[in-house]
Amino acid sequence: MRAFLRYFVDYFLRLPRTALIVTMLFVAALIAGNYTFGIEQRIQALPWYAALGGFFGFFLLVVALTWGLQYEWGYKETALTTTAELKTGRSKKLKVTTTADPGGYFKPKMILIVVLACFYFALKMIHWDLYPLLPHSLSLPWAQYTALVLQLPLKLLLLFGFLYAFYKAGLFDGESLPRAVGLTRRNTNLGAYFLLLLAALPLVALAATQQDFQLVYPKLHNLAFLDGVAHPAWPWKLLYECSYGLDFLGIEVFFRGLLIVALLRFAGTDAILPMAAFYCTIHFGKPLVECISSFFGGLLLGVLAARTRTIYGGLIVHLGLAWAMELAGWIAHGFAA
Question: Structural domain tally of the chain?
Fold first, then answer.
């Protein structure tokens, strides 16, 4: 845990304050806009092709603006300060605020990765109608169940298809695909990640007392149509929870693997803030407190991924929290009943 604290302190000491403050204000404005006007709900309500374009444009706008804010208020500000110090001779100690080459922001490989990443997540956000692909012999409840359980694994498979295409196109500069996106166990102190998870559990318990949390969790309520149909129902519900858990593997591979570990060679730790802003926007359909905390959780997991270059620890924390929220929601509804 001491090493983790050192990672966070080191990152925030080197992070330009103005860049952080301006980015946080931008994210706060996005959150306020969504929970006032329903940005995500309005896009979701569009026909699938319009929703795809809407999400793609929205994600790309958020990421581009966050990178732009960081460049304008971070690197350029630091460069001007450093130049002034060199000219006046007032300070011989140069403050390093980023490990990135700012020119990396504009390299075609990085731009292509970011644009295609936004397109992938737009594809993930729209609903996939799987009914035409299912056997006609399936009755309605089981067809609905199958379509629901297959959604997330198929979207994870699509993500790995994108990553493999990136690898074959040379976007990872010859590095192996697992190593390029942090699917390695190097520098992984699993015990420390479990401690982080334990530290977050009281916050989950507190959130479970809130009405907006209980309206969303447990996700298992999506299987209410199986009640009275499946005997016993628990194996089918367990399979659904496993499918739900696979989504968090995809989230970690995408946000901490692709948008942090894979972009370190271009932007260094400057990749963390834009990732956290993007990560926050995918929580717009969640309870407000969860959405706000996702930005800070994204920063935390982003710093760890950048320093360790692995996503396994973040997966432990994220998946543990997801299933803890399922359990907390189930318990909360039990008490409410």
Answer: 1
> Is the model's pLDDT at 7 over the cut of 50?
yes
Please give the C-alpha separations between residue 46 and each of 60, 244, 316, in angstroms, as whole numbers. Answer: 18, 25, 35
- pLDDT tens digits, 136-181: 888 888 999 999 999 999 999 999 999 999 999 999 988 999 999 9
- pTM of the predicted model, to two decimals? 0.89
Q: How many CA atoms lie within 13 A of 323 on its CB side?
A: 18
Q: Distances in Å between the alpha carbon of 271 and those of 120, 156, 191?
A: 18, 23, 26
- DSSP code at position 103: G
**Distances in whole angstroms, Cα of residue 213 to Cα of each of 30, 199, 293, 328:** 20, 19, 13, 10
Instruction: Determine the distance from the C-alpha atom of residue 243 to the mean position of all C-alpha atoms in its chain, rounded to a whole number.
Output: 18
Count the residues in the chain.
337
Domain span at residue 294 reads 2-336
Q: Say which residue the tokens 């959604």 belong to.
A: 151
